[in-house]
Amino acid sequence: MRRHLIIGRMGDKDKLAIPQASDEVASALPLVAGKLLKHGVGRALADLKVLGLAPSEIGVDLLVVAAHVHAADTRIARKTESQDGWTREIRLVVPVSDPDRWRQAAPVLKRALDFLSGDKWELGFRARPKGFEMLVKKPKLAVVPFDTVNLFSGGLDSLIGAIDTLKAGGAPLLVSHAGEGAVSKSQEFCFDGLKDAYPKSQFDRLRVWMSFQGNLLGAAGKEDSTRGRSFLFFSLGIAAGTSLGRSFTLKVPENGLIALNVPLDPLRLGALSTRTTHPFYMARWNELLGLLGIPGQVDNPYWDKTKGEMVAACPDKALLKKLAPLSLSCSSPSKGRWKKGGSAQGHCGYCVPCLIRRAALRGIDTTRYGIADLKAQPLDTGQAEGRQVRSFQLAIARLAKRPGLAAALIHKPGPLFDDPARQPALGAVYLRGMQEAGRLLAGVRTVAL
After folding, report:
1. How confident is the model at residue 137 (pLDDT cuts 50, 70, 90)?
2. Fewer CB within a 10 Å sphere, N or C end of the chain?
3. What pLDDT is attached to residue 215?
4. What is the CA radius of gyration of the chain?
5. Which range has the worst mean pLDDT, 20-29, 220-229, 439-448?
6. Do the Cβ atoms of 161 and 130 come closer than 8 Å?
């Protein structure tokens, strides 16, 4: 186990000494090449400029902080760098435009990151070095054409969120993080389909690629769990939102079942449960924005809807049916592509997100799945497909016997004290979501072979 310190550096002249503990492994994160910000941040600013937009300096800070978080999350291996095979200890020292404001916000940021990734984070901030005090110029457009910002992952929920916004006459800026190939393709296919369907709308997109060379942090290795990726995703959306020049809402479309992400069994509570849109995490973001003086908020408009309810309520069902097969829901798209007969978009058909997707689209689903028919033959619980389905079946059966458990189980993934009035609705959406999946899995056989 090793504690890691990552120090952001802006240029060759940025040599400010940073105190280091004797048991810390220090690494520099180079942030600029010449005068341009690296790791996709400079490209994001350039793409915003093409749209006539420019984020605030605090918005740029957020992208720089996100680069540190994403570098640490993807380049510090949990297996070798932690005592328990999961929890890493990471300290960041980030150059920002307003260190005092960021220091005030640091405790909230730490709570958000600790909860999101399951690691122990420490955050330090210092002033940007001379020559980098201002990183953006004011936009040229007198009138900004966008009235909201939507996260656009390429998944089914984000597709529905975009359709709902466009059908209501909105002009959203769709913000994406370009991940691996299948994810990027889904974002592109869905965006092109929306453009064809709404040619008169002024909506557009910002897509950012952020990755790091494998040896960035020396022998710290590589980590594939990427539990901190949503911090990058949210940061992109908020930074874009500060470009609008007014109060804004960052819409984060996610069905209530996945947002809560109640573990199917006790073993899933830690490493196998993501917290990307959990209410506690969302609340910390809104607290953070207030402390940073950013006039925005994050909101999941579907927190009390199951995925099937989102599909049923979509105001343009013909378009949704057409574009849904182009969206991507699978937790591990690569495994779906490698399986014989699998989807070109990488749906395995048996992971938790795939099962929730299949349940939501019953009757209109034309997606190709690695396992096309869950009922064709018994699923082996000694294999991944059988284990996933069996876990779902056991959780569904438990709730069927004791529906009142839903009100207690929703508290397992994380605290829900920020909005007590929502707790009954959260319990209800969890129960309905599991029942929705139960209808899909009725008659599916799982056996130990």
Report:
1. confident
2. C
3. 76
4. 22
5. 220-229
6. no
- 270: alpha, beta or left, given left = phi > 0 and alpha = psi -120 to 50? alpha
**Strand ranges in 153-203 using DSSP code E only, listed in sequence order:** 172-177
User: Which amino acid is residue 370, in one-letter code?
Assistant: G
Q: How many domains does the chain have?
A: 1
Q: What is the pLDDT, as a whole number, of residue 309?
A: 98
Per-residue pLDDT, 140: 63
DSSP of 318-384: HHHHHHGGGS---SSHHHHHHSTT--TT---S-SHHHHHHHHHTTTT-----SSS-TTSSPEETTSH
Q: At what angle do helices 57-75 and 99-117 cross, to 10 degrees?
A: 40
Per the DSSP assignment, residues forming a β-bridge with 95 are 126
With H, G, I as helix, E, B as strand and everything else as coil, classify residue 123.
Answer: strand
> What pLDDT is stored for residue 345 in this prediction?
61
Domain residues for 376? Answer: 329-447
| Cα gap 310→242, rounded to integer Å | 29
What pTM does this model have? 0.94
Paired sense of beta strands 148-151 and 248-251, if any: parallel
- Bridge partners of 174, per DSSP, are 150, 205
- What gap in Å lies between CA 327 and CA 348, rounded to an integer? 14
Instruction: Please give the Cα distance from 249 to 159 (Å, whole number).
Output: 18
In a domain, 334, yes or no: yes
Question: Which residues have C-beta within 8 Å of that of residue 314, sequence separation ≥ 6?
Answer: 160, 163, 164, 320
CB atoms within 10 A of CB 234: 27
CA distances from 74 to 214, 215, 226, 230 (A): 9, 11, 6, 13
Confidence of residue 299 (pLDDT cuts 50, 70, 90): very high
Contacts of 404 (CB under 8 A, 6+ apart): none
- Which of 36, 273, 251, 62 is closest to 159 using CA atoms? 251
For residue 365, is it within any domain? yes
Spatial contact of 291 and 104, defined as CB atoms under 8 Å apart: yes
Structure tokens at 298: 């994050």
Q: Count the neighbouring beta carbons within 10 Å of the beta carbon of residue 302.
A: 25
DSSP-derived 3-state class of residue 313: helix
Domain membership of residue 383 (yes or no) is: yes
Phi/psi-derived region of residue 77, left when phi > 0, alpha when psi is between -120 and 50, beta in every other case: beta
Sign of torsion over alpha carbons 75, 76, 80, 86: negative
Residue 122 lies in a domain: no
Which stretches of 197-321 are assigned E, i.e. beta strand? 204-208, 248-251, 296-299
pLDDT at 166: 98
Task: State residue 271's pLDDT score.
Answer: 41
Which candidate, 382, 427, 439, 53, places its Cα nearest to that of 239? 53
Residue 103 and residue 64: Cα distance in Å, rounded?
A: 15
In this prediction, residue 265 has a pLDDT band, given cuts at 50, 70 and 90, of confident
